Amino acid sequence: MRIETAQREQLQQWEKELEQQYQRICQHNLSLDLTRGKPAADQLALSDSLDGILNGDYRAPDGTDTRNYGGLEGIAAARELGADILQVPFEEVLAGGSSSLTLMYHAVLTGYLFGFAGNQPWKDLKAPKFLCPVPGYDRHFAICEQLGIALETVPMTATGPDMDAVEQKIREDQDIIGMWCVPKFSNPTGVTYDADTVDRLAQLAKIANPGFRIFWDNAYAIHDLDHQVKLPNIREAALGNDTADSVLQFASTSKVTHAGSGVAFVSASPANLASLKKQMSAMTIGPDKVNQLRHARLFPELTQLKEHMQKHAEILRPKFACVLEHLEKNFADTDMGEWEKPQGGYFVSFNTRPGCAQEVIRLSAEAGVKLTPAGATFPYGKDPENSNIRIAPSFPPLEELDTAMSVFVLCVKLATVRKALEAA
């Protein structure tokens, strides 16, 4: 049914039927969770051979005893793994601990307190700001919010951030000193940036504050579902535009091996890496090199890494198909929602009609299905349209996911009809 053309009597009858269905579901006392993009247990099990893989041999290929202190940059074999993931030279990669979010936080803090490559510290600006394509990743927003860096939104399109809006904001405000990007299978929309977007991003430093940096969070660089989706190389684009210092890239094995004990990577120009290492040297003697060696042994070549990711795709593919099947079946011929069809990553982004997201999430929770809070994909938790909902299909078993999606689509219908009756 198209809500816009339905008569009030039709809406009232439909609400009654939906309410009856909803009450029946609430009696089942469900407890299902679609809140965060956590790997499922069978995905984690793909890497269980990490346990014992060293077999008492703690020497890295270059002879480093990984049990001892030192090695701020990480062992060479781990840096080579990061270089394979990000498609950059090994010399421009630093391998850290388990979380790329930690590296991103440290990089933002370095820019804020000290500046990069001799540039002015961001804290000395009148009102430092970051650009945030929305909907986007709440943990990116949280870093800036904690440090008091203001967040300016720009809309996402089917090819990446709206670059006209990005360029206009930067020209008009030299206090914009950073931009968050999830360039491949973007969180949550699933969009991969096209070549024109990447090239225009690489040119931003020509019009921005000299201390401006793009934080290129390539979290899903190798998380393709069906076929390899090509992301243009931001390093090559930046080199071609003589703006190599403007980009810092991040990745990790958090959704490749064990989510809580992976290896994180940052790649940047020599000048940027020097700034990061200078500050890191005061806070750590070095990362967990033993764990880095475990990962290097698991993936000695890029071939093994690709084969491993194909196994992840085999587990995730039917779950994404389940979500999309429910959305297509229930909303394809209606005006009750819009969504992307991602070719990889960990999320499906769904937009309700304006004003309905909070109610959908409330109804779902009362029926036993937890979703990410409304507004989480926008800075400060404020979605101006109250419409975006991030669905995370990866964690629950397929049968539970199917049940959760049945509840979700019912809640979307009920919330939409009630909203329409309020306006009728």
TrEMBL record:
Keyword match Transferase: yes
GO MF annotation list: transaminase activity
Keywords in alphabetical order: Aminotransferase, Transferase
Presence of keyword Transferase: yes
A matching Pfam family: Asp_aminotransf
Protein origin, superkingdom: Bacteria
CDD domains: AAT_like (cd00609)
InterPro entries from the UniProt entry: AspAT_Ic, PyrdxlP-dep_Trfase, PyrdxlP-dep_Trfase_major, PyrdxlP-dep_Trfase_small
Listed name of the protein: Aminotransferase class I/II-fold pyridoxal phosphate-dependent enzyme
Organism: Microbulbifer harenosus
